[in-house]
Amino acid sequence: AQKITQTQPGMFVQEKEAVTLDCTYDTSDQSYGLFWYKQPSSGEMIFLIYQGSYDEQNATEGRYSLNFQKARKSANLVISASQLGDSAMYFCAMREGVQGGKLIFGQGTELSVKP
Amino acid sequence: AAGVIQSPRHLIKEKRETATLKCYPIPRHDTVYWYQQGPGQDPQFLISFYEKMQSDKGSIPDRFSAQQFSDYHSELNMSSLELGDSALYFCASSLVGHLHKNIQYFGAGTRLSVL
């Protein structure tokens, strides 16, 4: 069965510094997608970045990049130049297959950015 | 760009009452998903619809039912509400197909409180 593990319940980072949020996954599928979502205290779930299992390049979206290490089954999120508005809960999620399918979420990491 | 619209944003019900949550997916998206997020928990998949047909089912109680209508909006019906149903309910939509990343975009959620 597929599983997502986020081992950091909480993280602190100084404003303008970079931070890495860890995510490991387990699946027997060869084809899958990995996602990161941000959930601010207001509750909405905001899509940040996507990595397909066959993508050879690490995904990047502005200040977000995904450090994808397939052999180690890890998909860490790197946020560069942290901003106060980055303070939120961050969820790593996985979808098996390339077609429509449910997301399995990790437990989340709460990131706090210090001024 | 249009996003996923959920209504109502907040709902307060008494035990044993019924509730109906509505979701309007992003235009042209063909798949709708429902998730339940309990306090301090990660989102859990309930049910999904592809082109108005149920495509997958998760840990959805028998007291809950859902459908997708001809205009692609979806409704989650919850009956005999229990205290444990208090949660944030998300609807997400995506466009499925091998040319698409099948990214699920979430609505702002409906916060249900059962008293």
Protein model, in words:
By secondary structure, chain A is mostly beta strands. Chain A contains no helices and 12 strands. In chain A, strands 2, 5, 6, 10, 11 and 12 form a 6-stranded mixed β-sheet that branches. A 4-stranded antiparallel β-sheet of chain A has the order 3-9-8-7, with no helix packed on it. A two-stranded antiparallel sheet of chain A has the order 1-4. Chain A is globular, with a radius of gyration of 14 Å. The model of chain A has no long low-confidence stretch (mean pLDDT 94). By secondary structure, chain B is an all-beta fold. Helix content of chain B is 0%, strand content 50%. Chain B is built from no helices and 11 strands. In chain B, strands 2, 4, 5, 6, 9, 10 and 11 form a 7-stranded mixed β-sheet that branches. In chain B, strands 1-3-8-7 form a 4-stranded antiparallel β-sheet, with no helix packed on it. In chain B, a hairpin with a 5-residue loop joins strand 7 (64-68) and strand 8 (74-78). The mean pLDDT of chain B is 94. Classes of the chains: A mainly beta (115), B mainly beta (115).
Quick summary:
Chain A has 115 residues and is mainly beta.
Layout of strands and helices, then pairs:
The complex is a heterodimer of chains A (115) and B (115).
Chain A: E1 3-5, E2 10-14, E3 19-21, E4 24-26, E5 32-39, E6 46-52, E7 60-61, E8 64-69, E9 74-79, E10 88-96, E11 104-105, E12 109-114
Parallel strand pairs in A: 2-12
Antiparallel strand pairs in A: 1-4, 3-9, 5-6, 5-10, 7-8, 8-9, 10-11, 10-12
Chain B: E1 5-7, E2 10-13, E3 19-24, E4 31-37, E5 44-50, E6 53-57, E7 64-68, E8 74-78, E9 87-94, E10 105-106, E11 110-114
Parallel strand pairs in B: 2-11
Antiparallel strand pairs in B: 1-3, 3-8, 4-5, 4-9, 5-6, 7-8, 9-10, 9-11
